[in-house]
Write a structure and sequence with these properties.
Oligomer: single chain
CATH class of the domain at 113-159 and 264-383: Alpha Beta
CATH topology of the domain at 113-159 and 264-383: Rossmann fold
Bound molecules: arginine
Number of helices: 21
Distance between the termini: 37 Å
Shape: globular
Largest sheet: 4 strands, antiparallel
Strand content: 5-15%
């Protein structure tokens, strides 16, 4: 249990000794540190239950609190607010607990199995800036969930189903008509065929095919036909499609990894659609499919709806399943193979209707029990200065690689340390670029949009990734310089700066809990900045290494180590790596 929780429970017991029962004592840091570091507000409510004057109640509680040497400067303000300050001895004690193991300062949640669906990249298309936020937020939420004791799995949920793949294969057929994949008489092993196509080709092929299909009816029909052949696992087409998916997947994996995004499950929509027949049977048996203009639909509107709620299209008039249906199949597949307690969909907030329809249809068919949480964790977009999703200079969709190159050029320029060799400099610039982008991406509340500002995000000063990295590396080198020191406990503190660090650390479990409840990383990003800034002002005020009072010096080193450990833990949760130097 976290220190602050234990303290709240202890104070609850102290209230009991004073003669008062409460459900819970809530310790929120006060912003008038001179009056007290925390305020206990229970007297007001107790006055109603016990029909006593709140100030009298407060006085009795204060008498008990005064017997406890963990508290100093105990006073009553206004009608009965009790202010308390934590004693230096107690502050040292809890810092030591955190120093020993950061996890001593974290409240675990009830264990639960969670699937986080946060990839959504589409096969044979380059990852673009829209995939940045879902990847970053999803990965960080998954790591946070794991830290708090959930069993969390990330699912890439690749878009590999439907027409785009048919189009790609149609265009490959145009360019390489003699490929054995298209030869009906071929009986050999497809894996031995030399396929002259790279991922770069695929990224070029898709837009070409998609444009051709807009102008050429026959081309489109053929692509449709190929799509149907892939979906019915027809020899040749199906095998070629599998290879295209593999080529693309390889590249998608690398791009995600360059952003420290990793998935445990690499399913695609097509894997989920293996459960389509089973899914369809459930809907048929429950009589949930209605015919509408040749399509099969599920009614999902309710009389309470204020906004229009169109029916979910299960299969179109040509028999092809919709995007919604792929998500229904995914729910069924996950239920069968993982039986999760919760599924979090970290996907662009503009897909809200899609998920509302999907979840309602899933509930109607009872694909999962009522207790299972299905939640669309909608994210805002990263915009350009014009307030629209960030584009290339000529107005096209910006690929994720192009964006990272842009940031890399900037972070590379900013490394001025002459002692760093070229190769190393490149590697550091890459790590710093990722940190700059990820921190800026996670700093705003996840649902709000933000504007891409290259200068600001890569700045060494202010609320930025580079600032956090720089400061954390400085802590690390201080620890290295301090070398072996015998002290194992923080025993002495000097001023307000250290106290500020300690109180900030005490607040961490609250921050983590709120973050996971609201499924947003902004408070963690803010916390990192606050703790680091507090530490840096302490660092500026004191000469730690050369401090003559050896007890103080050792305590300061251990305090530095505590802050360093917390920074490393939280940067890790955000998916941010720390370079050796910068
Ligand atoms: N591939 C989809 C797209 O590009 C996003 C998938 C989001 N995840 C999901 N389970 N629907 O729009």
């Amino acid at each position: 249990m976290s220190i602050i929780k234990k303290l709240e429970n202890d104070i609850k017991d102290i209230l009991k000794t004073a003669g008062y029962e409460v459900d819970r004592v809530l310790l929120e840091p006060s912003n008038r540190r001179d009056l007290g570091e925390y305020q206990i507000n229970n007297a007001m409510q107790l006055a109603k239950t016990y029909h006593e004057n709140p100030r009298d109640i407060a006085t009795k509680i204060v008498n008990e609190l005064e017997k406890d040497n963990r508290f100093t400067n105990i006073n009553i303000a206004g009608p009965g607010f009790i202010n308390i300050t934590l004693s230096d001895q107690y502050t040292c004690d809890f810092l030591n607990e955190v120093h020993e193991d950061v996890h001593n300062n974290i409240d675990k949640k009830e264990p639960k199995k969670v699937i986080v669906d946060y990839g959504g990249a589409n096969v044979a298309k380059a990852l673009h800036v829209g995939h940045l936020r879902t990847g970053n937020i999803g990965e960080a939420l998954k790591r946070l969930a794991l830290l708090l004791g959930y069993d969390a799995l990330g699912d890439a949920h690749l878009g590999d189903y439907g027409r785009p793949l048919g189009l790609v294969l149609r265009e490959i057929k145009e360019r390489y008509p003699d490929l054995e994949y298209f030869n009906e008489d071929y009986t050999g092993d497809y894996s031995e065929i030399d396929l002259p196509i790279t991922n770069k080709d695929l990224e070029e092929i898709y837009p070409v095919a998609s444009n051709k299909a807009k102008e050429d009816e026959q081309y489109l029909d053929e692509a449709r036909d190929i799509t149907a052949r892939i979906q019915s696992h027809e020899r040749g087409y199906y095998d070629l499609w599998k290879r295209v998916v593999d080529i693309s997947k390889e590249d998608i994996k690398k791009t995600y990894e360059s952003l420290n995004v990793y998935f445990e499950i690499w399913n695609g929509e097509s894997d989920e659609m293996e459960y389509f027949d089973e899914l369809k049977k459930i809907y048929e048996d429950k009589n949930l499919l209605k015919e509408s203009e040749g399509a099969q639909v599920v009614e999902v509107a309710t009389p309470e709806d204020k906004a229009p709620m169109p029916p979910l299209i299960f299969t179109r008039s040509n028999g092809v399943a919709s995007y919604e249906t792929t998500d229904l199949a995914a729910i069924l597949e996950r239920k069968i193979n993982y039986n999760p307690d919760e599924i979090w969909y970290v996907v662009d907030a503009r897909q809200a209707l899609h998920f509302e329809q999907t979840f309602r249809a899933a509930r109607k068919a009872e694909l999962v029990e009522d207790r299972v949480v299905l939640e669309h964790v909608g994210n805002g977009t990263m915009n350009g200065k014009d307030g629209k999703p960030f584009k290339t200079r000529d107005g096209g969709v910006m690929s994720l690689k192009a964006l990272m190159d842009l940031v890399y050029d900037e972070t590379y320029k900013k490394i001025t340390n002459e002692s760093i060799k070229e190769e190393e400099k490149k590697e550091i610039a890459r790590i710093v670029a990722v940190a700059a982008v990820k921190y800026a991406d996670l700093l705003p509340y996840r649902g709000t949009d933000y504007i891409f500002e290259l200068e600001k995000f890569t700045d060494l000063e202010g609320k930025t990734g580079p600032y956090l990295l720089y400061s954390t590396i400085r802590m690390r080198s201080l620890l290295k310089k301090a070398g072996d020191h015998k002290a194992t406990k923080i025993t002495k503190l000097k001023g307000a700066a250290e106290k500020e660090i300690a109180l900030t650390i005490l607040n961490l479990p609250l921050v983590l809990n709120r973050a996971v409840e609201a499924k947003t990383l902004n408070e963690i990003a803010e916390f990192l900045y606050k703790l680091t800034a507090c530490y840096n002002s302490f660092y500026a005020e004191n000469k730690i290494i050369t401090e003559e009072d050896s007890e103080l010096r050792d305590s300061w080193i251990l305090l530095t180590e505590t802050v360093y450990n917390i920074n490393m833990l939280l940067l890790g949760i955000l998916g941010i790596e720390v370079p050796e130097k910068m």
